[in-house]
Amino acid sequence: MIILDEKNRVFTLHTHGTTYQMKADRHDVLVHTYYGPRVSGGDLSYLIQYADRGFSPNPSGAGRDRTYSLDTTPQEYSTCGVGDFRLPSLELELEDGSLLCDLRYTGHRLEKGKYSLPGLPAFFGGEEWETLAVTLSDAAAQVEVELLYGVLAERDLITRAARITNRGSRKLRLRQAASLCLDFHGGDRDHDLITFNGCHAMERCLDRSPLRPGIQSVGSVRGTSSHHHNPFVILCEKDAGEDHGLCIGAALLYSGNFQAAAERTQLENDRLTLGIHPFHFCWTLAPGEAFVTPEAAMVCSTRGFGEMSRQFHRAIREHLLRDPLAGRRHPVLINNWEATEFDFTADKLVEIAGAAAKLGIELFVMDDGWFGKRDDDYSSLGDWQVDQRKLPGGLTALVPRIRELGMQFGIWVEPEMVSQDSDLYRQHPDWALGAPGRSQTLGRSQLVLDFSRREVREHVYGELKKVLDSADIRYVKWDMNRSLTDVWSAALPPERQGEVYHRYVLGLYDMLEQLHRDYPNILIEGCSGGGGRFDAGMLYYTPQIWCSDNTDAIDRLRIQYGTSFCYPVATMGAHVSAVPNAQTGRTTPMETRGVVAMSGTFGYEMDLNKCTAAETDTAASQVAEYKKLWRLIGEGDYYRLTDPWRDGPFTAWEQVSPDRREALVSVVTHAARATPPFLALRLAGLDPDLRYRVEGREGSWPGDLLMNGGWPMPMPVGDYQAFQLHLYAE
Ligand code: DGJ
Q1: Cα–Cα distance, 271 to 75 (Å, whole number)
Q2: Residues enclosing ligand 1, CB less than 6 A?
Q3: Is the pTM value of this prediction over 0.85?
Q4: Are 198 and 228 within 8 A, CB to CB?
Q5: pLDDT tens digits for 329-356?
């Protein structure tokens, strides 16, 4: 609920559990007064303290009042060059070369429903949303900034974006435009910053550090959101934990360069900014033109990380994913990549699919290697024609053979890329990103197509379309296997080269939107060498994303744990693969691999013909179990019961149905030890007043007991054992 106090120019955004407030103060500066547990409201600006602080300058309008300074005032959208020395949200460069920016409140409007951001991913929905738009202007620069706030009360979610319009008669340049600026004041909270970091095949590893004086930041300048840092961060109180304490999660719906920065200032007031990374960003706005920032979304929880995550999960599932199979089970899939890499024939694929079909697997995905002359990763990207040597008769011959097995067919593509050894590159070498007079840097021996250019996108889309129209294709895996370098576009003048990174992302979104529009029934899985572009922006176009190229069940415990802080289980691509694992060399039991992959989109990535009879039986029962439990797993509330980064004896998590009548607890034990201690696992999220049965066990137990006394852990023999408890209310 948004409450406007027109007289005092106070804007209060209430969600069910939180309150967010801003006010246009006596100098028309839009100050931030409060974000935290829900309070009754009123004008909370009394919380802001004013005092003369040395070297904190005073705006001219403050006259002789030395206590008023932009350097010490909490603001909604920070500026620079006129007295605020902290992290800026907006940096402008005018034609006269000045780099100043001073924003003052000029108006506001309130709307039912949710604003949209054409060309960009955004949360959507109907009457359950409200929108507040507050307009700020820089009179000298003749720039208008419209701050957009979307409020989804039930999910404690507030979205933000900024539309920056050149209202003057001269060109200007944007050097930075954040999506979110969040100021804290009063020094009342000692914050920790939580970020999710890693590398290829080990993504989203959680790091928690206290804020120190100065700026701490994570970000990406790789052109994608990256494996290395995720555009989701948490600021929390020192003692916040999984089920207690105040924490604020902030996600950027963006898949390119980003920066999340937290600053502990001179007065120990913290500021968080989140948005497009200012590295190589410079956007020219002609008179009348507007720039819209990507959307950011915040959830504040007063009950720890678990509740914050569950609110993000629900909001993402209900208001961000555009899933052709919404409300229905996604098919259990088998992908041939780890089984064959590039070395396959049609018969081999049918053989792999055949073994899978017998176990109830429903979708066969043909991965990399089916086009051009792609016998390895040195060639053919861009030549999206079936390799007749491997697949005689093309998809027209192969797909019916898969369909005859009772399976659907899916296909891998990497549309943003071109190999130097390809017909496309030979015809259009200038279509790849690259600066004049320099040879380009290769990544996985490939170049990046300039997706900022319409003609490039149109060509690639046309080729893709031919493939998709040539057979009954139900699924597309959209891969992207390198970071951007040599970022220069032949289609833009020198002064606009600072736009290429962002135009690339807009081009990508444009093409994904077209794909979504033209093929509303195709399920698209995002991928970037695994989880290199696992962000809320991509989820708008690809409702599931391959979580990591690392399929080792034990590493996956950590990767999926980190991913779960923002993103729902139903979006995480997770497969059972062969052992010893291709990435780690580790051997884990088939049961364990199944339990871990089941907390994801579930599938297999191996040749099941090579399994023992016992493994085949296990796979068959896993598939059956997943089909039985998919709704609970995908739509249930997710509880992290332990932290896999702590050296505990096991990792456990739980899904609970929204009515709390059913739950699935999954446990994976770590390295075995002799004479293990007696341990109990305390469950969560159950109804304390209901009694629960546990599948396969006699008797029933009250919810309050299971949550407080817990459930005795079995004492398995051997490393990396797993088991599940399926509970249902009497
Ligand atoms: C990277 C992906 O993450 C893998 O699953 C696989 O599709 C390869 N690319 C294929 O080149």
Answers
A1: 9
A2: 337, 367-368, 412, 479, 481, 527, 529-530, 546, 549
A3: yes
A4: yes
A5: 999 999 999 999 999 999 999 999 999 9
